[in-house]
Amino acid sequence: MKMLLIVSNIGIHKEVIDILKECGVSEYTRIERAQGVGKTSGPHLGTNVWPSWNNIFFAVVEDEKEKLLLEKFKEAKEKYKKEGLKVFVIPVENEV
Hints:
alpha+beta, Alpha-Beta Plaits, four-stranded antiparallel β-sheet, 6 strands, globular
């Protein structure tokens, strides 16, 4: 199993959820209003100067779904270049 850690601009929230659903991922955890600074997207700090926010999604998926999910997120990253989207894949050794 793998855990996807998905950090995205709040403006593409629906698109992230749509990709998860399209790939058969119905279980995830979302943290809203995360702050951060990206190389291409710049600051997302929820302030008057930098008003944007990020969402963070955690989803544990079967290894077979990893490739499809990464393909879909690469397409989304290309489409929404300025919004900010990062996906990290973390091996899951155990689950309790």
